[in-house]
Model the fold of this input.
Amino acid sequence: MLVRLMYASRAADSVSTDALGAILRRSRQDNQASGITGLLCLSGGSFLQVLEGGRAQVSALYNRIAADARHRDVVLLSYEEISERRFAGWAMGMIELSRLNPALLLKYSEAAVLDPYALSGRVAMALFEELIATASVSCSP
Ligand SMILES: Cc1cc2nc3c(=O)[nH]c(=O)nc-3n(C[C@H](O)[C@H](O)[C@H](O)COP(=O)(O)O)c2cc1C
Done:
């Protein structure tokens, strides 16, 4: 049984590029082992992440992530049962929104700086879909 979960959070002040690299390396290793796929997006100090996988695995990972001191104010944006994955190709793809064309963000949000807390789950999903369609996802930090 597959599920998809999306959340927003604020990066702790101390999260550097190195720390982000460490999160991604560990995520890719562990996610591959537990069958989790998804994307992690960083924009103006906020994270937006989508996780897909088995219900028990996604639930356990979300609980671990929510307790991680490298971010705070973790808010669940959406949770749904799915019949197929949309992000099967990524053990954890990374998107640095500051590198994107602002027009892409303006399509989905009020300003060219993304505020994940202002997004509905449906719009967050549409944005992620567009990001993979425009090859904006990278496999490095
Ligand atoms: C923004 C963010 C995203 C994360 N994404 C993942 C992830 O996709 N997979 C993962 O295994 N850990 C992820 N982590 C790390 C987990 O919070 C946790 O440190 C890791 O799963 C190891 O847990 P443990 O130390 O309890 O074994 C993420 C952490 C942060 C701050």
